[in-house]
Write a structure and sequence with these properties.
mainly alpha; Growth Hormone, Chain: A; 6 helices; transmembrane transporter activity; transmembrane helix; MFS; Major facilitator superfamily (MFS) profile domain-containing protein
Length: 162
């Protein structure tokens, strides 16, 4: 029973991370300025995240790095949404969000491989990654909810209505 709850929690965490990861990229069209420069900047935030996680994973432990990455990503994404009118700050916060998301993802991949016994590892890892893919599938639809509800900014005009 313990592995079923661990499987569900890990799958939910990966789903949330993937939803945030892709959501940050989709939401860049709402930030004023060059979409290409903004996307480049949030993309380069991933490399230091992986390096830092590699250095800290044995010192801090997997759970603390996952928790820290998810909290950092969530706080940065919320702050990015609240920082309207400050495009530079929004891009920096999106970079921090992507940094946290990418770091937590890197640790969760290692954690999933270590969590289950060898006989069940491939089956349960597949189930966990299925939850992660659900987040990837849901991300564009969550992004489109803003344009459907009329809450989005200038990006909503790029989608056909009805």
């Amino acid at each position: 029973m313990a592995s079923a709850s661990a499987n569900g929690l890990t799958s939910t965490a990966l789903c949330t991370l993937v939803l945030s990861y892709y959501g940050i990229g989709f939401a860049l069209s709402y930030i004023p300025g060059s979409l290409y420069v903004s996307f480049f900047l949030i993309s380069i935030a991933e490399a230091p995240s992986s390096l830092l996680v590699g250095l800290l994973i044995d010192r801090l432990g997997r759970c603390w790095l996952i928790l820290g990455g998810m909290v950092l990503s969530g706080a940065a994404c919320i702050a990015c949404g609240l920082a309207e009118g400050a495009p530079v700050l929004q891009v920096v916060l999106a970079m921090v969000g992507k940094f946290g998301c990418s770091g937590a993802w890197s640790v969760l991949v290692v954690y999933c491989a270590e969590l289950f016994p060898t006989a069940l590892r491939s089956l349960l890892s597949g189930a966990i990654y299925q939850g992660a893919r659900a987040g990837g599938v849901a991300a564009p639809f969550v992004f489109l909810l803003g344009s459907a509800s009329g809450e989005s900014g200038e990006a909503s005009s790029s989608y056909p209505s009805g």
